[in-house]
Amino acid sequence: MTFEEFAASRLPAVLAFAAMLTGQRATAEDIAQEVLTRACARWDKIGGLDRPEFYVRKMVLNEFLSWRRRSGRLILAGDAAAAAPSTADIADQYADRSALLAEISKLPRRQRAVLVLRYYEDRSDAQIAELLGCRPATVRAYASRALAALRIEMGSRPGNLAAHGRSEV
Amino acid sequence: MRTEDDLRSALRSLERETPDAEEVLRRVAFRTGAGVARPGRRPGRRILAGSAAAAAVVAVAVAAALLATPPHGHGRVTAQDALRIVPRYYMALVPDNLKSYEQNPAVGEDRAAIRDTITGQTLATIRPPKPYVMFAGVYGAADDRSFVLAAQTTVAGSQTAREKFFYARFNPAGHAVTLTPLALPGLPVSNTFAAAALSPDGTRLAVENQNGPTQITVYSLPSGAAKTWTAYGTQPQAMGSDPTNMLSWSGNGTLAFGWQGSLPWGEYLLNTGKAGSSLLASSRDALCLQHSAPSAAYVGAGYEGYLTPDGTKIITPVLRPIPVGQIPPACDQAPAPSVAQPTPGVTPPATVELEEFSATTGQAVGVIYTSQAHGALADSDVYWSNPSGSVLVVEGKTAHSPSRQWVFGVLTGTTFTPIPGTSSPPLIPMVAF
Question: Which member of A29, A97, A115 has the closest CB to residue B24?
C-alpha cells in the first residue's frame, strides 16, 4: 500500500481513532501529525507490511499513551459538574453523555484506550492485546476496572449506568 | 447492555473532534522537508534524500486529499473554524516589563512565548542564552512549530550589538522549546540585518543585510551553504517599514522583497534557484505601487507585499484599490488614465485596503477587504496565508473593542476573527505563524 493510498482510504479512520482517544481535536491533530511525520519517513517499510493501518494505529496509540497530559480532563467532551440533570429527555441524554465522557477522561489512559478499542472500534480482546502489547487477560482487567470506575462515578446520577446493573466484561 | 450502549453513544459523539485530513497532511508535508528536524547539523545525503522522498510522497497525498475535500476559505466559517484553519501555534516576542517597553520599545523583547492560537494560552516560554539578552526577530515555517529567532547581545539600535540566529522547535507533547544555535557563516552582526524570512519548509533562511549595498543572503540550514545577491551601486535602502514582513517566500523558492531604492520601486520576485549575484538583475519587478505623487493613491505606508505560498499572488495594503482586472502602470511610466487618480496635492483618504495582484502579470485580481468590511482599521500587513491566499492572518483594530485595541486575526472572506491572546494590551510587538 502506498502512502497516497493509505491517506486516501484509511487516514480518516485513523484520525477518528486519535479523536476518540484524546477527546480533543487539537490534541488528536498533534498526535496525528507526529505519527504521520514519522510514518511517512519509514513508509517504504510500513507500506510493505501486511496491515499498514494496524501499524499506524499502534503508533497513534503509543503516542497517546506517552503524550504529556495537558489537562486531566477532556476539555471539549463535557464536564460532570457542569452537566446538570434536566427534565427534558434530550437534555437528559446530553447531560448523561457529557458526564460520561467527563468520567472517561479521568480514567488512566490504558483503560480509556481499551474502552475506545472495545466499544467504538468493536475489536476483540485479542486484537486489543496485540495493539497494547499485553495479554488478553490484562485487557479484560483494564476493561473491568474502567467500567467499575464509571459505575461508581455515575452512580449518583438518576437513570445512570449503575441503575442498569453490571455489564459483561 | 445499557452500559455498552451508553459508552458507544458517548464515544461516537466524539467523532466531531476528528481532525481534518487535508490539514493534517498539509502540515506533515511541510514537516517532511529535508533537514527540518535537524537544524544546526549537517545531515548526510541519505537523510536528505529520505526526507525529500517523504515530502514528495506526502505532497501527492495532500493533492489527493485536496481533490476529495472542499477548499477552506470559501463561504461562511465560524470563529472556531477560522482559528482551526490557521497554524495551531504561534510564537510571540514579549517584554518582561510592559510599561517600560511601551515607553521605550527600544529596550527590546526579553522572551519568546509559544501560544495556542485557539485558546491564547502560553504553552512555553524561552529566553535567549547568554550573552544574548533579547530577541530581535522571529520567523516561522509553515508547520506551526518551527521558528528562527534572532537574538541580540544588547538592546535594539545599538551599534555594538551582536546577533545570532537560533532554530526554535516546539514540541507540543512536552510543551518544550528546543533552541539550537545556527552556526551559519557570514550572518550579519552589529545590528545590520534588516529583515529575515524562513522558507515554508523550514530549510532556508533569507536575510537582508544593509551593511553597505543592500544584500539578500539565503542560507541552507541543513548544509550551511549561503548564496548572496547584492544591489550593486546602490546605497543601503529601507525596503519597508516593518522588518517582520519585508521578505516572504513561496513554496517553490521564490523570495519576494520590496524595493524603494534608486531603481523603480516595487515588489520584486527573486528566483533563488537561479544563478546570479545581482539582486535586481536576478529579480523581476512584479508589481509597481509607487509611493510618490501622483500615484500615491495606490499604496499604503510601506512596501509590505506578501507573496502567497503557492506563488501566484501578491497581497498588499493599498490606500485606494486598483480596479479588478487592471494592471498598475509600470513605475517608469505615467499612470494609466483609467485608474482613479487623486487630485494633485490633495492627501488621499486614509482608508487602507488589502488587495491581491497576480504575481505573474501584476493584474489586480481582487480586493480582499475594505476597512469597513470587518471592522479593522489598519494598514494590515499579512503575517500568514494559506497557499492560495484565501485565508490570512492580519493585524487590525477591532471596531467593537472599546479601546480599539490592535489585534491579530484570521481573515476569511469578509469575516475577521480575532486570535485570542494577541490583543494589545498585553502588547505583542512581533509574532510569527
Answer: A29
Q: β-strand B283-287 against B266-271: which pairing, if any?
A: antiparallel
Element (H, E) at B149: strand B146-152
Pairing relationship of beta strands B254-259 and B266-271 according to DSSP bridges: antiparallel
Instruction: Dump pLDDT digits (tens) for B266-290.
Output: 788 999 988 888 888 888 888 876 5
Q: Is the C-alpha dihedral spanning A50, A54, A58, A63 positive or negative?
A: positive
ipTM greater than 0.95:
no
| pTM (predicted TM-score) | 0.61
Interface test with A, best of B18, B144, B170 (most A CBs within 10 A): B18
Q: What's the burial of A102, exposed, middle or buried (CB within 10 Å: 0-12/13-18/19+)?
A: buried
C-alpha cell at B325: 482586472
Of B174, B176, B161, B197, the closest CA to residue B126 belongs to B176
Cβ separation B32–A40 shorter than 8 A: yes
Distance of CA B20 to the CA centre of its chain: 23
Rg of chain B (C-alpha set): 22
For residues A105 and A73, the answer to whether their CB atoms sit within 8 Å is yes
